[in-house]
Fold this sequence. Notes:
- By secondary structure, this protein is mainly α.
- About 65% of the residues lie in helices and about 5% in strands.
- It has four domains: about 1-45, no CATH class; about 110-150, no CATH class; about 155-250, no CATH class; about 255-305.
- The protein has helices at about 30-35, 50-70, 80-85, 90-105, 110-120, 125-135, 140-150, 155-170, 180-190, 195-210, 225-230, 230-250, 255-270, 275-290, 295-305; strands at about 5-10, 15-20, 25-30.
- It has a three-stranded antiparallel beta sheet with strand order 1-2-3.
- Helix 6 (about 125-135) packs antiparallel against helix 7 (about 140-150), helix 6 (about 125-135) packs antiparallel against helix 14 and helix 9 (about 180-190) packs antiparallel against helix 10 (about 195-210).
- The chain is elongated and about 90 Å long.
Amino acid sequence: xxxxxxxxxxxxxxxxxxxxxxxxxxxxxxxxxxxxxxxxxxxxxxxxxxxxxxxxxxxxxxxxxxxxxxxxxxxxxxxxxxxxxxxxxxxxxxxxxxxxxxxxxxxxxxxxxxxxxxxxxxxxxxxxxxxxxxxxxxxxxxxxxxxxxxxxxxxxxxxxxxxxxxxxxxxxxxxxxxxxxxxxxxxxxxxxxxxxxxxxxxxxxxxxxxxxxxxxxxxxxxxxxxxxxxxxxxxxxxxxxxxxxxxxxxxxxxxxxxxxxxxxxxxxxxxxxxxxxxxxxxxxxxxxxxxxxxxxxxxxxxxxxxxx
Length: 308
């Protein structure tokens, strides 16, 4: 049976789209520009392959317009655009063509996105937190490692110190025990994405610069806290013990990271089957806990692909 166009109807709610009827039955809707491009008109006989090509072209136009609108307000990564289009039901060919168009005209550029994101976040976050965020946005591992390794360590330390100093001024009015303040600063710095070496350096700098000298603080302390503040040797021993315990919790030993990774993996796969998404979620989870990026990669590859 021949495919005869029996009706072309402009949609009421969208004048830029039309409904196409084949043999008196609705067949598909498409952009009005395709009507002119393919010279479609009532009474024309159209081949099935040509119909499929028109539908593919229309999907591409819709996908492209949707993607352009999606990236209009803020920059997006290639992975974010792909996932958004997948969520809207677009097929792989359409998504690939749309992404190629966006990359060709520089609407999406993961390299520039990384530079912009790191430049923006470096004033408030350490490299571990930045790693996690970019990984979660779908940045490729090779590019991510290159960009993270280019972060100036001295600049990162100075920013971390300023954040700690600002936090100290808030904490000092609430807590008079120096050892407790040290611990809170340590936890705060780690939570901001800085590694344990930077956290320890900051606390030592604070001690050396006498930032934690609390004027007349002993009158606010009980006997136990007063002894802790006045006995520097005891205080240093407590700090060293705290450093050791904290680093043990976040060390990069093979047994520790593999155990954590396996437990988290078992939780993630209950709601997620896509290996790429599992990789990002699992790596983000481990990076937030201070594990080394190479160890995270090794552990996850061992779980997902049996690669040691």
